[in-house]
Hints:
The complex is a heterodimer of chains A (263) and B (352). Chain A is α/β, with parallel strands linked by helices and 263 residues long. Chain A has two domains: 1-83 and 174-263, Rossmann fold; 94-168, no CATH class. Chain A has eleven helices and ten strands. In chain A, strand 1 (6-17) and strand 2 (20-31) form a beta hairpin. In chain A, helix 3 (99-106) packs across helix 5, helix 3 (99-106) runs parallel beside helix 6 (158-170) and helix 5 (123-143) packs across helix 6 (158-170). Chain A is globular. Chain B has 352 residues and is mainly α. Chain B has a two-stranded antiparallel ribbon. In chain B, helix 2 runs parallel beside helix 7 (163-185), helix 2 crosses helix 11 (246-259) and helix 2 packs across helix 12 (266-288). Chain A binds chain B through residues 54, 56, 75-77, 80-81, 85-86, 88, 92-98, 100-101, 104-106, 108-109, 111, 113-115, 118-121, 125-126, 128-130, 132-134, 137, 150, 152, 154-155, 165, 168-169, 171-172, and chain B through 4, 6, 8-9, 180-181, 183-184, 186-192, 194-195, 197-199, 201-210, 216, 220, 346-348, 350-351. The structure holds adenosine-5'-triphosphate (ATP) and magnesium ion. Magnesium ion binds at residues 46-47, 89 of chain A. Chain B: One of its GO terms (molecular function) is branched-chain amino acid transmembrane transporter activity. Chain B: It is found in: Cell membrane.
Amino acid sequence: MTRENVILKVDNLTKQFGGVIAVNEVSFDVKKGEIFAVIGPNGAGKTTLFNMITGVLPSTSGQVVFENHKLTGKKPYQIAKIGVTRTFQNLEVFSNMTVIENVMTGAHLTMKTNLFTAGLRLPMVVKEERKTMEKAMECLERVGIAHLAYKMSPTLPYGSQRLLEIARAAASNPKLILLDEPMAGLNSEESRQLIEVILKMREDGLTFVFVEHDMETVMSMSDRIVVMDNGVKIGEGTPEEVYQNPKIVAAYLGDEEEDTVYA
Amino acid sequence: MEKKDLKKIYHNSPAGPIIFTVLLFLMPVFISSNYIFTIFIMIGFYALVCNGMTMLTGFAGQISLGQATFYGIGAYSSAIVTGTYGLSPWIGMIAGMILGALIALIVGIPTFRLKGHYLALATLGFGIIVYTSFKEMKDLTGGSNGFFGIPTINLFGFEFNNDLRYFYLVWVFVMIGLIFSRNIIHSRIGRALRSIEGSEVASDAVGVNIMNYKLQAFMLSAMFASLSGSLLAHYVTFINPELFGAMTSIYFLLMVIIGGSSSIWGSIVGAATYVLLGEILKQLVPMFLPSAGGEFEIMFFGILLVVTLIYMPNGLYPQFEKLFSKFKKKKEKVQPPLQVGGDRVASGGENQ
Ligand SMILES: Nc1ncnc2c1ncn2[C@@H]1O[C@H](COP(=O)(O)OP(=O)(O)OP(=O)(O)O)[C@@H](O)[C@H]1O
Ligand SMILES: [Mg+2]
């Protein structure tokens, strides 16, 4: 593969919390259209890594480049504008809204309405609202929860709220979505459905980076994997390569039973 | 595919607002008491201020203790533009709104950079500065003696020079303000504002520039307050700094909380509650406690605020709404079904 294919470049990224180095000089490249997994035991620094890529946390050193934009130092909303959005390990749905409003809020960046055009409710505003609603509905249909569109989001079961977060992320027309443990709390039917959704969205040109503890999902879905332990990248490769790397197996997959029973 | 109807999301029937407006605008046909008009005019002034505050507090989650300042900026802008320079009241009104928005921008930018509830502190401090300026800039404002001789408003030669006419003028503004706010709430902007309360990190992750939206809500609230102040100035034709002190700001916040900040209709309920109870107190208190002064009012509303927060944390308006939907359900048995629900989007603590 050529260099032009690289869409996300993480370069020596480091995060220090006081004495704890949560992420220690981690580097990797993600290629366009890839489904890229980040795995590692609890506390390995996966969420911290995501937080730095998406601008939630400032990094101590190193940098992140997406396409030709430097993400380091930017705020999350600016990074979203560039085309990178995410879901959260601990659910972050807008609990004061209905399901469809959540997804319509996800489409914020695709809309143009401002305070004054909204206040005057110009015809273009109504048109845009209709279009956005339609689009939000499509996103919900894709993840299979369109029938819940008009429910208040906190009334949804846990698994559906996860799907809602993915629909919301997709509504912003991103190029890259970071999913922090998307399968946690989903039943096997929902997981299967979600894998299908992700594979389909990839066909439409999206790139995914995801954190996951469920090895079966990771092995079946990802093109490449980065393995982290204690803030350090300890390996990288295709699922087969990772499984065959004795260092990785010893450090991480070996204790799989102890470490990842309940992530 | 089924038709995507926006009414499914924001299913407010216009029935309630229309009935309210018709009754209100027909009121003078049945009651022609200047006293009643005056009361409704005051409610209108306060409702306008509270409407803007509801957008700021109920939807963007920010608390301002300086709305009386913007109310004052509107009033003095109008007074100076019309009284000193003899220009049209409409110019004064627009000048006041622009000035109010600019000042909100200047106060808001550094404040919203900080996380947490610094707006309350910043606006309180800023309010004291402006209040002092109203007092000290004697050449411009007339100082503590006040500004006299503000002309009345006219529109194409029609003078709004009596209580009945002013009643209509003010309430047309209140209604336009309510529609404007409602439109904002039911749009991209309203969702962006509410998403901040729903989850700040997620809001940020989908691309909402949180600081910018808090700022916009604050500027909007300043414009509403300023507009109301302009209307006040042309009604009373005499203003002084005391009308725009910190106490007035506190009363505005109190109205918003008592009325209920999760719906813009709460602004009318809060303003009406404050004005009507205030009038009743003025009549009753001297009968029982002849020596009591204005402090009694402060105490009374303070207690009312605490009681409201304990028993109705979302304010009075949701109670009205419940009553209204009960009434409607009864009617529905006879009539074909109607969509139920006021102009309310689920927000804040409604769903715990
Ligand atoms: N805000 C913070 N302040 C201090 N330490 C933190 C902070 N956030 C994370 N850490 C620490 O950084 C390390 C990595 O945490 P992180 O949440 O990134 O791990 P993770 O790989 O996502 O784990 P899990 O699988 O449990 O989600 C942990 O030791 C954690 O305690
Ligand atoms: Mg994590």
